[in-house]
Structure formats: structure tokens, C-alpha cells
Amino acid sequence: MQALAPQSVNLARLPMRSYLRAASTAAIISLVTIDVAGAQFVSLPPVPNPTDSSSRFATTASLSDLGTNFLRRLGNHATWGTNAALGSNPGGGGASQAGTSAFPVRLWGESYGLSSRTGPQGTFVGDKRETIGGVAGFGATLAPDFNVGVWLDQSHTRINVPLAAQSAVLDLTQVGVNASYTIGPWTLAAAGVHGFANIASRRQTTLGLTGAGYDGRVDAALGELSYYWGIGQARIVPKASVEYLRAATDSFSEYGGLNPVNAGPATAERTRFLFGAEVGRYWIVDRRVLDLSAYGKFVDNIAQNVSAVQISLGTNSIAVQGIRESRYGADAGASVSLGLTNTIRLYLNYDGKFRDGFHSHQGLAGLEVKW
Fold this sequence. Notes:
By secondary structure, this protein is mostly beta strands. The protein contains 2 helices and 19 strands. The chain has a 12-stranded antiparallel β-barrel. Strands 11-12-15-16 form a 4-stranded antiparallel sheet, with no helix packed on it. A hairpin with a 4-residue loop joins strand 1 (about 30-35) and strand 2. The longest helix is centred in the N-terminal third of the chain and has 26 residues, at about 55-80.
């Protein structure tokens, strides 16, 4: 039998549509030439796709978002406007009850839900994230006008990247501390957060699911200065703050499915400046204190350092850029608080983030006890 000459494809002469078709075929099943007489098979090694690790970028972004939310919560508690005469605390527990010594110890618990969405960016096709979580904390007045708080946050996040047929689950534990010191109408506050996460990701392929498990971390710090301007039972509280955050996820190797990939570590660092104000008012209703407030802040990401991730499949590898936030954005929210007694208070909060290509919405319910 006469041997067949090996067949080859000159990709340079193909039109663009044919080239893309040939490239995708190579990535999935490889291009193969056959020598029937010699029974030889020659295949081109598969090439990773930039979207193969989309869920990795979504988890790193989710760590940043959750770390920021928790850090802002600590900062808001430490500088939330209160009516000094009544010693009210409309923003929640922690170090927010500056200058009050009648009830120097505070304990609180909170539950929350968070919904976030990131739009397409570069090769990233966009994601949807849903989070539920709970917070427990303890606060104390250590000296006149000096308050501290210790916090624990546990959350569970489901991440969906539908256009890349990928998903992930992120379980995050965060520990936070805050402190505030008040001089007249001025309050200076600081907060810090450290978190660690377990992550499991899944990717659909033509031969079933590929999976991976890896860890993540988030560290953040915030300093905030506020000025309390009381107008009868109303208030205006301008605030300015600086925030630093670093989120990191480990490298991983997928298993199962078709063409599981290896992905290197990813990091995202951001330094932000925020400026805005809270406005609020309280009423005495049947010997109970009802407080309503709202806030808005301008956000400037003055520095961002988001790493590229190395994705490899066999002997081939590519570098894919991570997700960046827009330079400018806004945060806004509102709170309603009801003091049932002098020592027990219920509150509801809404917090939203608005960026070009990203937004998130969080609702929170809390109970605070003082003694």
C-alpha cells in the first residue's frame, strides 16, 4: 500500500474566520496528521483560552469587594453621626458611640445579603455574585472619648460567570478592629481587616466539569476624619478617608474534564480616597429614639496594581490581565435605627457601590445591646 503524504494546514493563508475555526479546533482536539503505512500520529499541543480562568478573576474581585464592604462598615461605625445629648448610635455598634460612658460596653450581631455584578472587561466576560453573611462584635469605651471595637465576619459567596460556563464558591472569614478618638466636633477613626478564604471553582467542558480548590486572603486598612455639625435634632457630618486594600488568590491546577489548566497566583492592590457626608435626624416617639440617616461619598482609586495571571495548558501558556475598577465612582447608603430601650437598639442599613462597569447592593439588619 502506498503511504499517504502527511497533510498540513497553512494557517497564514486562511481567511480570519477559517483561522479562528482552525485555532479553536486545535485547542480542543488538536490538529492531527496520519501516516497510514507507519501508523504515526502527529498532534499540535493545545493552547489555553483567555477565558479558561474567568472565575479566578471573579474570586479575586469578590475578595476585594467583601474586604472593602467590611472595612467601610468598621469605619462608618467609628465615625457615624450621633446625637451627643441622647447618646444615640444610629450607625450600629463598635466604636461609634464616641464620648459616651453611661454604657461603656456594647455587643451586637448583624446579618446581611450582598448582590454584585461586574461587566465585561478585556477578555473577562463579566460575572454575577450573591453573598450572605453574619457579623458579631464587641465594643468598649476605654477612656473618655476613646472607643474600640473588635469584629468577626463570616460570609458565603456564590459566583457565576455564565458566558464562560464557570462558577465558584467563596467562604470568607474576616477579623476587624476599629478605634475612634473625639475632640469636640472632630472624630478621628482607624480600622483594619484581615481575611482568609477557601475557594472552589468549576468549569464546564465538552467532556464534563473541571474543578479546582485554592485559598485567598485580603488585608485592608482605613483612616477617616469626620466633623459633627448638629442642627437641633438634625446633623450633617462631612467625612474624608483614605483606604488601602490588597487581595490575593493562590495558584491552582484543575482536574477532570477536557484540557484542565494550571493558573498562577493573582493579586489586586488599591489605594482609594473618599470624601462625602452623612445627613440625619432623630425623633422621640413614645419614649423611643427613631433615627434616619443617609450618606454619599465620592470615590477616587488613586492607585491600582492588578496583576496578570499566567495560564498554562501542557507546554503552552498565556498571560491574562486581571480586573480593574474604574478610576472614579460613588458610594451611597441609608440607615434607620430604633432604640427600643436605653440599652437595646434595632437597625437596618443599605449600602451601594457604583462604578463604571460595576455595582453592588447590600442590605443589613442588626441588633445592639449596651450595658
